[in-house]
Structures are given as C-alpha cells and as structure tokens.
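Title: [Solved] HSPB1-associated protein 1 3D structure

Original question kept below for reference.
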Amino acid sequence: IDEDVKPFTPEKTKEIVMSLQQPAVFCNMVGDWPALRWNARYLSAVLDGKTIQFRLGLKTMDLVPQFETRCSYVKATLEEFLAWSCGQPSCLSGPFSCYEYSKYWAYADYKYIARIFEDKPEIFQDIRWSDFGFPGRNGKESTLWIGSEGANTPCHLDSYGCNLVLQVQGRKRWHLFPPGDTGFLYPTRIPYEESSIFSKVNVANPDLKRFPEFRNATAHVVTLSPGQVLLIPRHWWHYVESIDPITVSINSWIELDADHEARVEEAITRMVVCAIKSAENPSDGDLWLNPTEVEATSHEINLQYLNKAVSAYFECQKASMSEQARPSS
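Solution (posted by the thread starter after getting help):
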C-alpha cells in the first residue's frame, strides 16, 4: 500500500470509532504525525528540567491489584527517570535513589498535555485527532503516559466516553474485557476516583480462590506497538502494562451522548463517598480516596454538581426527543 494514503478518511474513521462495540487497532493512520517523535529523550529536552510526578510500584506480582493508594510518589525530571531506567550510577542520589530499578517500576501517568506544556502551546499541533474525524482535537485534549518496564494501571473501566490511545515508544500489553463481563470482575468504588470503576482482581495474576467468577471472564489481549492507535469502546474494562524498558503513549477520551446519564450516576456516587468519608475516622480515610481526588468536597458543592449533571442529562433528552419529534417515556 502507498504509505501516504491512510486506510480510512476522517469521516469513515469517526463512523467506525463511534459505532464499534469491540476494541480495534488502527494501523497506518498516524505516519505523518509529528507526535511520533515524542520519545522520552525528546520529551526530556522539551521539558528542559521541569519535574513531573511519578508513581512507583513493586515489580513483584501480588494477588491483589497495586492500587494508586498503595504506591509511592516522587517528583523528578525525565532526565533523572531516564538515568534511573538505564541503571546509571548517578542515581545513587536523587529522587529515585531509594528505589532499585530491578525491583520497582515508575509511571508518569495521566499527565494533561495542556498543563505540562502550557508554555509551549505550539506542541499541541503534533497530535492530530482530526485524522480520526475530530477536527480541532489535538494535544490540548490529550493525556501523556510515560512508564518503565512493569508499570501498570489496575484493571478498571472509564464511566465516560470511548478512548483512543496512540503508542509512541515501546510496547504496552492491554488486557480488555467486555462490559458484559462486569459481574465476573468484582467491581468496586474503593479506591474512589471520579469516572473510574476498579476491579478487585489482579487480572495478570488472579486469586481464583477469592474471585472464582473471574474464570468466566474473557480477556482480549493486544500488544500495542509504536505507530498504532487502539480504540477502547465505552465501558470496556482494561488492565495495561508496559513491556519494554521505556514506554510513551498519548490518549484522548471522546465524549459520547451516553455520558450525560453516566455523569448523573457519578455525581450520586461522589455524594455518597463524601458523606461516608466525612463520617468515618479521618486518620485512615485516605486509603480509599485515589490521589487524583485530593479531598472530599462539601455536600453543597456535590449537590450543585448533581444538579448540573441532571440538567445536562434532561437537556440532552429534550434535544434528542425534538429530533425524533415523537413523545417517548
């Protein structure tokens, strides 16, 4: 095939993204994206000594997931991260000095590109989701993930949207489970994080005594390589692990109409979580609040949040009803 010709037009790609009920890997869609040069060395030069937060976890395989609440955190530059991951002796001091590379992995995950490159907005154009049928969507609406070998995200589903993930450097292995497997994955809201529902099962090393139903789940396993884009449809569970010394990926969540209903559910969950949290012993409550959720918000704010979610949901219903121009229940 001609390398310059993409297999699908933006319109066709959007149609596929919005209708597919199965995960899919897009190939030969991003060959001309400048973001393909965003390896860790390049980003280290661009960030020029700026520190970012890394989450550290143990490489040893436990029977329970390594939730974010059980990880350590360090602030470091990408240069320090690269030196550590190459086993350079300079790491005897510095942020990674307590963490032996052979025993730990590090993950700078969930970094909003708009935030870390706010002083370099021209870099947003390196990411062109317009090729997937989303004109105007670029790095500003995207998130960056940089990990070492073994870095992983516990199995979870995202309440909102579907997800497009571009692999830039190294490979990542994705274990995906369909929404219909939810009952076999022992879902939990602890640790709490808005829009993430976690599985109690470590899907890479399951405890089948504790979670016998997991035997009925069907994993779709895919290894994502540089230049490929993975589509994770709405409400598909995923566990992700880095299988090369250094991995870099970029993702963007695509909003869907069904998100309006999900926002109402999430607003209710948040109210319940905050109510329980304010009623329990404050000294040990943080174990079940993910670091992304910095503190329990007030009941007042939560009510406003719920109000907005319900209003938006009804607005969306009204709009779709007037399109159909016929009453529905």
